[in-house]
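Table S5 (text form). Sequence records supplied for joint modeling of the two-component complex.
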Amino acid sequence: MYSEKVMDHFENPRNVGKLDDANAIGEVGNAVCGDIMKIYMKIENGIIEDVSFKTFGCGAAIATSSMATELVKGKTIEEALKLTNKAVMEALDGLPPAKVHCSVLAEEAIHAALKDYSEKTGIEIDLPETKQKFDCASFHKAQSETDA
Amino acid sequence: MAVYLDNNATTSIKPEVCDAMMPYLTDIWGNASSVFYSVGQKAESELQKLRESVAKNIGAKNANEIYFTASGCEADNWAIKGFAFANKRKGNHIITTKIEHHAILGACEFLEKHGFNVTYLDVDEVGYVTPEAVEAAITDNTILISVMTANNEIGTIEPIKEIAEVAKKHKITFHTDAVQAIGHIKIDVSELGVDMLSLSAHKFHGPKGVGMLYIKNGTRIDNLIHGGGQERGKRAATENLAGIAGLSKALDIAVSDIDKNIAHMKKMRDKLITGLRDRIDYIKLNGPDDERRLCNNVNFSYEFVEGEAILMRLNMKDICASSGSACASGSLDPSHVLLAIGVPHEIAHGSIRFSVSEDTTDEEIDYVLDVMPKIIDGLRAMSPMYEAFEDGKLESFTKKYMEGR
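The corresponding structure-token record, covering 553 residues in total, follows.
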């Protein structure tokens, strides 16, 4: 069901763990939905010098986190902002339809870390508008309301 | 070689079962309904013998109460829909539980679109349904009660005999889905007092594609499959003689070896449960921790990690298991059974079921006990939830299940 690249990034995830000298941290997702991604970055002179991740989630969530960190490592903030979920998917040779949201989460986690950096440093970053994606948390909220 | 611990999903075909099927794929290929020539007559007389053997092995009084189907799923669908439509003049209310297999739940949801009302009973924190709760749900319109003999995910054995007594007292028909029970619990339909019972051959080392519905004589039921006059006109389709022979042989073995098998499976199950508890913190056993647990089922939630990732890591070590996480099932919600016993979503996502068989060895359990803690440690090391827990920012849900151990 998964491509060889996804399996490789799941079996040997790159850049795992907490980055102790991170100056930008982004966390997205929701435990209720089954995936949380946390990205740590060390940014200097507009360049992402180092990056790492921690992810609670399925195989695809771990693989997309790993690939997303690889794709932004050593890049400028502007370049990282251009990273799309589609690019993460392509780099992994695709994802099953039910797992596309994992790549969306990876894109959002990168953006969240950059937003955190902007807020901490006052450096203005032109964050792209959040695309309206499927949102598991609001699905569950709506669900619990209709169940009640 | 793979360590196969997913026997609640399916089982391997025993060589004796395969041997018993072969004659019906070679020499005895006639149509059991074509009784005007010897080729068909031979098939028909073989079918009758197989039916009698199955009847005897489940304690049915008559062989004509055995109806072969193409699956346990079909047997469940037939019992629910066939009975409901045949008896709708008597009432339109059905009682079942929240932890049934989707074959039952799906059939009930379908009936709700066709004028029937269904009560889905709550279960307790280990998945147990009480006869009192069943009785309290009965109304003047209740025509059918369906409660599974044992749950496929968390292994809860339900009080079927007592529920059957309640049903009998109120003159309501009682069906039980015994798909997971055969080979794991002694089943005698007469002693249990059930009116209908479903089973599926591939759950007890028989072939896939064949199941059975026991229908006690005198039970009114409509056809699910219309067509020819097979199965006393109640279930059309040319009989799958090879499959039926496989079911019959597998049942024969399961019934004759049951005491020995249960003892072995319980030993393997308990070794796994105790071993996992000793080696891994922050886990919760789902389902009963006593005699009400199916002899082959082990289901734990591992906090701070997700089930599909665990399954994939297990697969890297050649261990086959299953998960109740939403990701593993391809849906948005984790297992309906885990949610019904009150396991929160985030904990349900991290659940893994191991199900042993009579062929499971001590060495296989030892191997799993060696591998599993490393997998959980590895995934927790990359889990932001575990980090939050270690930093004191997140309370553990499973902590209370570790106390006193």
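Note: The two ends of chain A are 37 Å apart (CA to CA).
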